[in-house]
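Protein record

Derive tokens from sequence
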Amino acid sequence: MSEFICPFSGCQMELSILQVMHFRASHDCDPSEWVAETYGSELQEKYDSGVGSYAIASEYEWLTPDMVCDVVDTRSQESSLRGNNNPMKRSEVAEQFCGESNPAKREDVREKISNAVSGFTHTQKAKEKISRKNTGNELGERARKKISAAVSERDTSYMQTDEYSESLSEALTGREPTYPTPYDVDGLSHSVRSSWEEKIAIQLTENDVQYVYEKEFELSVGSYYADFVVGEFVIEIKGFANERSVKKATAFIDEYADWTYVVVGDQIPCDVHIPWEQHEDLMEVICDG
């Protein structure tokens, strides 16, 4: 790192990264305090005129951008965004982001980016790592048993009442359904429509559980394609409930009473509900059922 002479009047000490220690030991002051007292108005004038902290610091070999920000009044967030020192207000910067010179606006570049990300999916190992990072530590065996017991003892009879269905339908009015694009996963014989479906499919496969994916059931309200069918269990992976899904769930329970309707994720009318955080309890439900 290049050295410089201490700017304190009368001091000829060569300094580098130890300027803070030098100022405190030799001049009994903090460098930012000395800069504020000696050059404060000068730096403030430059900053107010639209010169950024890095540009100001480059004019003084002994000054850093952080020290500039310590000295000048950076004003409110709104002023910083609307003021002249906002880089996006400079015509050349705005042109780089918004104008035709932005490479991302070129057709060949957009096509190259699209081709690069098309069909991309994380490996299972990467997804598990991301999941652990986002959700924290995994549950211990003792905690899992407590959760499993709570799930098995939960009274869900209220979910079969008309009052519940009507209130839930009213609450979900206006939430339109979405239809994700299916994608392939290594090790699975079928495509899936979400990371949750992928996780459940892998969970069933690793436990040697035979299942049918998206089996069609005819309902009075239209066709219904179950996410997974295992024996007498129909398993619905519900990431986002809406009025349409409530109607189909209610119709399925009424019209296919011999089947056990299991919902993993968001809550809708069902025989067994498992919150997504407890999705690994699905194996206990279908194996003990």
Notes: The chain has two domains: 4-85, 124-288. The first strand starts at residue 4 and ends at 5. Residues 4-85 form one domain.
